[in-house]
Each structure stands twice: as C-alpha cells, then as structure tokens.
Write a structure and sequence with these properties.
This protein is an alpha+beta fold and 837 residues long. The protein contains 26 helices and 30 strands.
C-alpha cells in the first residue's frame, strides 16, 4: 500500500531509529545554541569591558621636557601651533590633552585639558614682528612674562611593539577621509548591519573566476573585530569569533563609534623605528598636520595605505603610494563622492610628505634608555598594561639638531674613509653616539645611539668603549688636587714639568711602553702643555707621580670604570659615552658631579605622582681644582687638539678634549650645555681617524645649533672661585714674569701654590698677582686676611707658607730588579735648568 509522504514521515518518526535521529538532532541544536550563547555572553563581557575602558586604556605615554616661551622670543603662530600639535593638542574642545584656537589677529589661544602636565592656565599669546609680544592669562586677564607649553609627545603609545597613536574623535575626522576610507574598504558601511552580502557574493565570484583571493569581503566592523580583539592567524575558530564580535559591535555601537575605533586602530605602516597606528598619527607623521586639515589627495593616500601599509609606504615607495592613492580617488569618483574636476586635480597632485620626519621625532635610542630604566627600577609596575604618563628630560629641539649634526658629521667621516680606499667604497659604516647633558642637573637633553635605529637597535651611547684621551683630564684633576690635600708628597700645578720622551713604565713586574701620537716627543713640558697637545708619556708620568690608585679612585667616584695601572692614564678601560658625559659634569659644574638622569616624573591614570626625580649631585672636586682643570681644557680648544672647533665657527667660551683610541671622541662643554660624541666601528676595528677629525666636527655642528635656542644662548665665561690666583709668568723659566721678560703669559694657581720668585734673567720688577674674590692690594698684590703672616697666604682660612711647588725629577721607572736608576751627571746648564722646573 502506497502511503502519502506525510504518513511515511510520521511512521519513521515513530520508529525507534527515527526517534533517535530526532533526539540527536535536537541535542545538537540545543548544544549549538548553548555554545553560541556561552561564547556570545563570554565575549560580550570582554568586549564591553574593553569598550568601557576605551581602545587605548593599556598604553603609557612618553613625553619630552616641557618648554617655556617668553616675551621677546622669536616665534610665529604657526610654530606655536605646530608645537602644540606635536604635544597632542588639537582644535577640538573634547581633546583631553588640550586644544587651541588661532584668532583672526593671529593670536593663539591655548586651553590645557585634564591630561595636561603643564600648569592648567588658559592663555593667549600675541605676536609682533616675528616675536612674542604679549602673554595674557585668560584666568584673570593679567599679563605674564612667560608661559609653559605642553611637553611634546615622544611616543603616544609606549609598548613592546613600539607603536604610536594620536587619538581622534569622529567629529575631528574630515568627511573627505571618511569618504576615502569607505570607498576603499567598505562603501556600504553606513547602510549594512556588519556584513555586506553583495560584497561577499562578488568576492566569492572573483575567487572562483580568478582561482585565488582577488577581493576581500570584510567590512570595516569585521576588520575592527580582527585587529582589536583577535590574533592575526586565519582559522575557522577565529573566523567564527570574528562574526560573533562583529554582531555584538554592531548591536552595541553606533556606526560613528565603530568608525572612530577603526580610525584610531588601523595600521598605517612603519616610519623609522615605530609602527604608526591610526589616522591621527598618520596625518602627523606623513604630512605634518592635524587630521582636520587633510586635503583630498592626502586623505586618499592614507586610505590607500590600509591595503598594504609597508609595501605602500610613501617615504620608501612614493610611486606605489601614488598609484594606490589614484585608485582610491577613482573609487571615490565612481561612488559620486567627488566630481570629475576634483578627481583630475587630485591625481595630478604630487605626493608631498612632511620634511625632516626623521629619527629625531621618535628619539628611539632615548626611548629604549627610558624603557630600560622603567623595567629595572619600576618592575612592580606594568607600563605595557596601564596608562602611565612618563615625563622625561629630552629637549626635542636639541634632539632634532643632534640628528642633523650627526647626519652632516657622519657624511664627512664617510667621505674621509672612502678617500683612503682605492675603490672609494665603504664596506662597513662607522657608527656614532651623541649625548648632551645639562651640566648643572645631569639631565639628558639629546641622545643619539646610532645612525639608523631601523638597521641596528644597539645603543652606542651605552656601549663600552675605550675613551682614550678624553680620560686624561681626570688624571690632571687628581694631580691638581694635591694642592688642597692635607700632606701631599708633592704639589702639582699647571706649570709642573715632566720630560716627554720614550719611556718604559713598570707595573706589577710588567713593562708598559706607550707611544705618543706619530711618535713625536717634545722634551720638557708643563702639565698644561701636555694636556693641550694630548701627550701620552707626560700624562702617565703625572699619574705615576700622583699615584695610579688616586687616579682610579677619582675616576670611580664620578661613575667611571678604572683600574690602578699606567694604562688608566690613557683611557684604556672601557666606559660608555653616557658615563663619560656624566663624569665631565664634575668639571663643568665647579667640582659637583651630577649623575645623568632622563626621567623627571611618572604619573598614573588619575594623575597621581608615582615618581618625581631627585637628581644625584655630589661635591667630588674642590671648586678651585675644577676651575684650573677647566682653564686648561679651554687651552685645548684655543691652541691644542680641539682648536678645530674654533676654525669651524664655534666661538663661544668652551672647554673640551679630543680622544683617540680605536675610535674617535670629543667631550666638551659651555656653561649651559655638555656634549660627548663617539665615532667608531661596532666590531672594534680601528677607525684610523683622530677624534679631532671624526667626533669634533659633529660636536661643533651640534653645539653651534644648540646654542641658538634661548635657554642655551646666554653662555658666560667660566668664572674662577675664591682662592684662585692668576699671575703672569715667564714661560721659559716658570718664574714670576718681570717687566723685562720678552714673553709673558697668565697662569692660574690655587692660592699658595703660585711661584713667588721673580725672573731675574731679564731684569725689571715683577708684575701683579690677582686672587679671585680678593682685592688686589697689600703684600705682593694680595690683600691677606687678618691673621696671615707677612710671608704667607690664606688657603681655606688657614695661613700656608708660599713656596714654589716641587716638580717631579726626570726619571725612567726601573725594571723590577732595581729600585733606583743612578742619576745621570749634568753640566752647568742642565743643573741651572733644573732649578726652574
């Protein structure tokens, strides 16, 4: 009997097998629904928590030092606005960092926001003839003489991936950019519910017709769910989660909110050492402007980068970026979002990128320096998981100038090295480090750790290298400090003499036979001459006379690595450029050592202080000794190995020292700024360029540029502290000059150590003695304080007998078996010469 289909179905369902299938299907349906519900609820909670915190809750921001603008400063409204934009300000009042407004009269109104580091005082800055003419507080409408500008963002997002973002609101995004992005990625974005069926069908057809993935079907919401919450691998599980998250996002957020998240999250490639995320940062990096001011061609170029950001990077591949930009413009015209005329004008526009968007904006080696300290000293705080604000000491103006100085100087180094090779090539590029400090505080103002962070992340500013002759001032400082010791075996002064000749030094039963540069020797020389000419033999003899242990101890006290051997005098022990810069503060800062530091403050999400820097400052050298050392280093730049800085146009009062080991060095300072430059090969190969030809040109270029800025402009002469004596001496005899001496030079001494005998070879009477802080009257031109005896001078409040400081005898250290060398016999003129050492 033939049963109807319906009856047969009923009979089957009543059968045990049918019942089993129905039950199993029901079970699968319930299980599937349960799993979907569980996953949806689970991920909904995660998504809601993420949305509530915001897309960038887990980001720490890194800032440079704040800057101050004063009445009379050279500035324009455009420059102030550019700096405000770099600090994270915008034209939208909703910007939490702050906002600005350019008035019709070109005055700039500034309104710090709740996240501002600078004092929250609204103000208007007015300009006249290229200068700041007025600063008016909008709080009480009274004038101000200066105004603190917001610290500039070094990295808006400080994390393991070195990403940068600049947050924008949907209201800040120009319509032209919205149209460009939707045309390129999802033209029906504002009309579908998270999925675009027409695009999915078209994509599937192209897949079948072409045999490979030709066109994507992902909507902006699907892309956002991928990059915001999911890992990049392509699996069925991830695709299912992507669909689930897309459904929830479309239900939870408006289209404008989805686009805003997308606009702040999208990957726009890498620039130098950072990944660029979001259109706000993209507009700043690629075009140097606020997102609100993007033109049609610029908006199309940014939208085009979404497809393949690194492949289309406009800095590296401008033609690729332009071709993709024109495709996006064509899609915009096809979607009737721009006219034919606008299209034609836009495709003819050249790709104009921001100039100088270089490593300076990123300061990548400095960022690594900060990151290392955060990891080392703040290990209990996760800077990759919370929104800390880290305020540093970096001066972005100086950082930019450092980048440019290094670029110019290293080209000169490359040219010199190429000229020495027959094929005129450079198989391996030498590397460079530059560290600039405030000598009073030790704050790092600029730091370069290499030529290109993208090629090498090794920070040469923290790499151990032999400093060579830039270490010598620490030897001579230890020698000059004998003048203030309680019971020195010998008092050494700038005119103490040593014989510069080939010498074997013995230490721990081992010979040490150094040489001078080009094997040139000058016979009897003073300590000043030895430092000025950077002579090796007299420097080691000076260290020997003082004691290698004293030299090493003094070097260690200022943060340097040193051992008590003859080689210590020539900078044979490895130190970093950063450590050398810190050590030199003891000279530039009247004997006070200021430890290098680079973090000023750390604030948590609520603005509470997590850390405020307390600079380490120690008086390690008598101010009088420090001044004598500076005075000698001034001579190095006046007539010695550092004189090239003067011939290159740097004419401000400065002191410095060249250094040559396998590498080239220069360390020098003014009263406002201290800078150390290193040039060398990473593998330790000899550079074969002296510091004067490798590092000094970079130092000079940087210092010339740096001192044009107001805060570094007022350089003064180095002033002697009280108790420093300046006397005129006869260079030939080392005695006080008389009016008949044919050659006279001024020399500085710690009061009580200057020569008192007048040169009697040329006749006449002696010249005056001048003591810093004392009136030039009384006995011997010195007004001795009450209580001093007729033939004494006061040193630190105590009468000290005046005498000619003894000079070390000419000697060659003996071999281990002999304790003394027999003294050679000298003629009458030799004995006479010894009287005046």
């Amino acid at each position: 009997m033939h049963l109807p289909k319906k009856a047969r179905l009923v009979r089957f369902l009543m059968h045990p097998a049918g019942k089993f299938l129905v039950g199993f299907a029901t079970f699968l349906l319930v299980l599937g629904a349960g799993c979907f519900t569980y996953l949806y609820v689970h991920y909904s909670k995660l998504i809601d928590a993420k949305l509530k915190a915001g897309p960038y809750a887990n980001t720490s921001k890194l800032y440079a030092a704040p800057s101050v603008i004063m009445i009379g400063d050279e500035a324009s409204p455009e420059e102030i606005v550019a700096q405000l934009r770099r600090s994270g300000y915008g034209e939208s009042r909703s910007n939490r960092m702050g906002w600005y407004n350019v008035r019709a009269d070109q005055a700039v109104e500034i309104f710090p926001g709740p996240d501002s580091f600078a004092p929250r005082e609204d103000a208007v800055i007015k300009f006249s003839d290229g200068r700041v003419s007025e600063i008016i507080s909008l709080r009480d409408h009274t004038p101000r003489t200066q105004y603190f500008l917001e610290p500039e963002l070094i990295s808006n997002l400080f994390d393991r991936n070195r990403e940068k973002r600049r947050l924008v609101r949907f209201e800040d995004i120009p319509k032209v950019l919205v149209d460009a992005v939707t045309s390129a990625e999802d033209k029906r974005f504002f009309h579908h519910q998270g999925f675009d069926p027409l695009r999915i069908i078209a994509s599937a057809y192209q897949d079948i017709r072409k045999g490979y993935r030709f066109a994507g079907a992902s909507t902006l919401t699907m892309q956002l769910s991928r990059m915001f919450w999911l890992t990049p691998e392509k699996t069925i599980k991830r695709k299912a989660l992507e669909l689930l998250i897309t459904l929830h996002l479309e239900r939870k957020l408006t289209k404008k909110e989805i686009f805003e998240y997308y606009a702040n999250q999208i990957d726009l490639g890498r620039h130098r050492s950072f990944s660029i995320h979001g259109f706000g940062e993209g507009a700043q990096v690629y075009f140097g402007k606020d997102i609100r001011h993007l033109t049609l061609p610029e908006a199309a170029l940014l939208a085009g980068l979404i497809q393949r950001p690194n492949y289309l990077n406009p800095y590296r591949h401008p033609e690729r970026a332009k071709a993709r930009r024109n495709i996006v413009l064509g899609l915009m015209r096809e979607n009737k979002l721009i006219t034919d005329r606008e299209y034609e004008m836009a495709i003819r526009a050249p790709v104009e990128l921001a100039k100088g968007g270089a490593e300076s904006t990123d300061a990548p080696y400095f960022v690594d320096l900060v990151n290392d300290e955060l990891q080392e000293n703040f290990a209990d705080h996760d800077f990759q998981a919370r929104s800390y604000r880290v305020y540093t000491t970096l001066d972005m103006n100086l950082q930019r100038e450092a980048v440019e100085a290094v670029r110019i100087g290293m080209k000169e180094v490359d040219d010199q090295l190429r000229a020495r090779r027959k094929d005129k090539t450079l198989p391996v590029e030498p590397q460079v480090a530059l560290v600039a400090l405030d000598p009073q505080t030790g704050e790092v103002k600029a730091l370069i750790g290499g030529r290109n962070y993208g090629v090498s992340q090794l920070n040469r500013a923290r790499s151990m290298r032999q400093p060579g002759s830039i270490f010598k001032p620490f030897v001579y400082a230890a020698a000059l400090a004998t003048a203030v010791e309680e019971a020195p075996s010998a008092v050494l002064t700038p005119i103490s003499t040593f014989v510069d000749e080939p010498t074997t030094f013995w230490h721990n039963n081992r010979p040490y036979e150094p040489n001078n540069y080009k094997s040139q020797f000058f016979g009897l020389v003073t300590m000043r001459q030895a430092l000025t000419k950077s002579l090796n033999i007299p420097t080691i003899k000076t260290a020997e006379a003082v004691g290698y242990e004293k030299v090493a101890n003094f070097a260690r006290s200022v943060g340097l690595n040193a051992e008590p051997t003859p080689a210590v005098a020539l900078g044979a022990y490895d130190n970093t450029p950063l450590d050398m810069a810190g050590a030199y503060t003891v000279f530039a800062n009247m004997g006070v050592y200021s430890a290098p530091n680079w973090i000023r403050a750390i604030r948590d999400e609520q603005g509470n202080a997590l850390y405020d820097a307390k600079p380490v400052r120690k008086q390690l050298l008598d101010p009088r000794v420090a001044y004598l050392m500076v005075n000698m280093l001034e001579d190095v730049m006046r007539t010695g190995t550092g004189a090239g800085a003067r011939s290159r146009g740097f004419l401000l009062p400065a002191a410095g020292k060249t250094g040559t080991s396998r590498d080239g060095w220069f360390a020098g300072f003014t009263t406002k700024l201290l800078c150390v430059v290193y040039v060398g090969f990473d593998d330790g190969k000899e550079l074969k360029l002296e510091g004067a030809r490798a590092a000094l040109p970079i130092w000079t270029e940087f210092m010339k540029r740096a001192h044009k800025y107001r805060q570094y402009r007022a350089v003064s002469q180095f002033s002697p502290p009280e108790g420093v004596v300046t006397v005129d001496i006869d260079p030939a005899t080392g005695l006080l000059a008389s009016v008949g001496c044919p050659s006279v030079r001024s020399e500085v001494f710690i009061a009580g150590t200057q020569p008192i005998e007048v040169c009697h070879f040329h006749g006449g009477v002696r010249t005056a003695t001048h003591v810093a802080g004392w009136d030039p009257s009384g006995n011997d031109g010195v007004a001795a304080p009450a209580g001093a005896q007729p033939n004494s001078i006061v040193l630190e409040g105590k009468p000290v007998a005046k005498s000619v400081p003894p000079a070390p005898q000419k000697a060659v250290p003996p071999p281990p078996s002999a304790k003394e060398q027999p003294k050679e016999k000298k003629g009458f003129f030799g004995r006479l010469k010894d009287l005046f050492r």
